[in-house]
Amino acid sequence: MPEKFKDASPDEIDKAMQVAARASEEFKKFSLEQRAGFMKAIAGNLENAGEQLISMAMKETHLPQARLQSEKMRTVFQLNNYAEACAKGDWMQVSMDTADQNRTPPKPDIRKMMVPLGPVVVFGSSNFPFAYSTAGGDTACAFAAGCPVIVKAHPAHAGTSQMVAELIMEAVQTCNMPGGIFTHIHGAGIETGKQLVLHPHTKAVGFTGSFAGGKQLFDWGNQRKVPIPVFSEMGSVNPVFLLPGKLKNSAAEVAAMYATSITLGVGQFCTNPGLIIGIGGEELDKFIAALGQKIKEVAPAVMLHPGIASAFNKNKERALGQKGVHVAAVSDVQAKENEGWPTIAFTSAQVFLANPLLHEEVFGPYSLVIKCNSNEELLDVTKALQGQLTATVMASVEDIHAHRSLIEAIKNICGRLLYNGVPTGVEVCLSMQHGGPFPATTDSRFTSVGADGIKRFARPLAFQGWPNELLPDELKDENPLKIWRTINSKITPPGL
Amino acid sequence: MPEKFKDASPDEIDKAMQVAARASEEFKKFSLEQRAGFMKAIAGNLENAGEQLISMAMKETHLPQARLQSEKMRTVFQLNNYAEACAKGDWMQVSMDTADQNRTPPKPDIRKMMVPLGPVVVFGSSNFPFAYSTAGGDTACAFAAGCPVIVKAHPAHAGTSQMVAELIMEAVQTCNMPGGIFTHIHGAGIETGKQLVLHPHTKAVGFTGSFAGGKQLFDWGNQRKVPIPVFSEMGSVNPVFLLPGKLKNSAAEVAAMYATSITLGVGQFCTNPGLIIGIGGEELDKFIAALGQKIKEVAPAVMLHPGIASAFNKNKERALGQKGVHVAAVSDVQAKENEGWPTIAFTSAQVFLANPLLHEEVFGPYSLVIKCNSNEELLDVTKALQGQLTATVMASVEDIHAHRSLIEAIKNICGRLLYNGVPTGVEVCLSMQHGGPFPATTDSRFTSVGADGIKRFARPLAFQGWPNELLPDELKDENPLKIWRTINSKITPPGL
Hints:
By secondary structure, chain A is α/β, with parallel strands linked by helices. Chain A has helices at 10-27, 32-47, 51-61, 65-88, 137-145, 158-174, 190-198, 211-223, 244-263, 282-296, 306-320, 349-354, 375-384, 397-402, 404-413, and strands spanning 95-97, 110-116, 120-123, 149-152, 182-185, 204-208, 230-233, 239-242, 275-279, 301-302, 326-330, 339-340, 343-348, 366-372, 388-394, 414-419, 458-464, 485-487, 490-492.
């Protein structure tokens, strides 16, 4: 059971936002290096945290120790990686166009850099107690952008969140940062979140979770007198396309890869492959049999919290109850209370196309195989899919050449396109795109994984006609920060 | 009077969007060079258009020939400039992280580039018949991003819009582009715009105009089943801060600059300076007298259309009718029907702070001077301002050092910060930021002027684990397009 904390009162929330707004002005005065140092201090505190942190997370999330250890180290890596990106300054996309007095009319001097949006509200996610919660990706990006952060703890792991919050507050102290740049708030009800999103001092929101939750925050953000960007990552079904050449040569190998991917972390990843699509026939049946065989061998495990387990059961049963949907395999071990029972089902493209319910995510260890009658039907299914975080093509090179229109249709619906891989396991690097067309996320133009996520919480500000001595360091002629800049439309290294 | 055209029927609009969606798939197959060539062909057609185009625009907008000629050439410049940026590819922010098989777990190969959002609906603006209408900035950016464009002509210059549309269609033909990448639609009523924004095939919207119009489009865009980005540029009052040192030494010079800026184009620019803020006293009174003297000498002129002229009169009279607002000067020449009568008013900070109506834009040749009692009041006024496209500081270097908090507060509310200049005249260059905090625009993170405006209509797509031969040219190892790319987090020139 999670630790219990008192919900923040409306007055406490208002006070936190007032404090954050004032701290925002102070935080801006710190250099990129200082911001990065602060983030690295949080990373250090997290890395060196005692074993009680992992114990608390195990107790609250039922995730195994090894997974939590590695998620903690991923979180440390993210903080350090975004800190380096922050200090390096590429994300600021500094551009300078110099004056030309001889032109008619004279061309002014204009220089542009990124400035922070202001206080960012981050909602802890249920499935990543470290990496997408209190000191997770959204928090790290917001700090890197120069924004104060107000975290609303996820009630399912409030104790873990509280412990991580204390590590952040310790770093605030040791780095002599303004106290108000970080606030940790508890609140189990919807009202806490609503007040935070609607507060006039809130300038942006980061969220990872369900469609219902993320869409509600997005709507609140847009309905404000002054609308704000709400970055909700709402998961997806992550379709996998099995093309004939690959299926023929590697059905057993693909089945083994996917049995692991579908059941990894009891299927509790937003990149979990929930749909597998191929052309029906002997080869696909062999694949389903091989996948089913592997799934039977995967034991059920306890899900993050009872609410998630009961939602998984309800959604899975509802999907399996649809006309034309058949169970292909379940784990040989019967699931106990709060456990997720690994399950594979199959249906026809016709059934899938006619039933919107089957397009929805079933969060947990479940995947639906769709048998298409033809390449045309494969294309129809693809075009009928909603926006996705990822899509995966399992294919030979020849398959790709033979399915050009299909590949283009798949590109239209996803943020990350994999070839002969599995979508679970999201690499933290600059080239990562973790954000897809709605409803995967509320803004497909941004990512919530990788240092480009910093750009979510900043906006460009142009300076026109300012004397060099009065410009921010980022824009000064002599480039004291030694950052890459675009000068008169040419990308220019520091020193030139 | 504007030319009259038949409004598009709901069926015609639906058909146009279907055609655009199909063309979107075809358009993607053209290279960056081919897109750029197409944009340059439009620029060429516009540059070489016969005198009838300017005559039509003069008849419909009442703008003088010289202004329209120069706006036309600005539009040609924009198309060519964004075409060059398109081909150069920096805007795509290509990033590659290469694989590392020796890491545990192995690091995958991930490469990211921008892909087009899909069909973009552009609303012609009333005040820029060329530069922010049919072949204007939004259209050029959308084409550069690889998106088909559906233009809704502004009914006040529908004939001009029709002529420019034909020049674009000519370029579609000569460049062998898919026909559906450009559609021109007439529609005087609100229903045409509503259907266009709500159509499922519409993927983004560009708009320049009033707050009421832009906010409505934004709300429609967000209320869709699948929300889309709506970039509304809704103007602002563009505050000018007169600091004491500057005022003391250059009151007459500043007054002359601002009399010209306030009345330029009969005040019909979104960057028109509508508020001038200073510390009350002898120096500010001298400035107001000098500004008034200059304004008296500026003759009224016909505004864009009767609706704009009547709105100007109504809004100006309403502002002047507020308690505590006093007229400082009006033009010596009485305005005739449909003309804008240059007017300067003044009030106290106290009156301004207590009356939200005085914060609203009066679109036309009108500016309100605010007299503050102290630096504290100056800061209070600044913090009470809404989001702005621009803010201008008229100041000596010493003034800036003496007003640090004020400058920081000004940065918070604007997208472009000018020093000792005038906000009118928006340079088309990469460093320009034309987009400010709401309500200046609906998304302060993007610009509608300068080649960075292309980024509004594209989103990142990451490719994971793809063999080199199957990757788009932008991402291939050998870099056939010779673009700058970030490789393993290092900005890397072509050839490396």
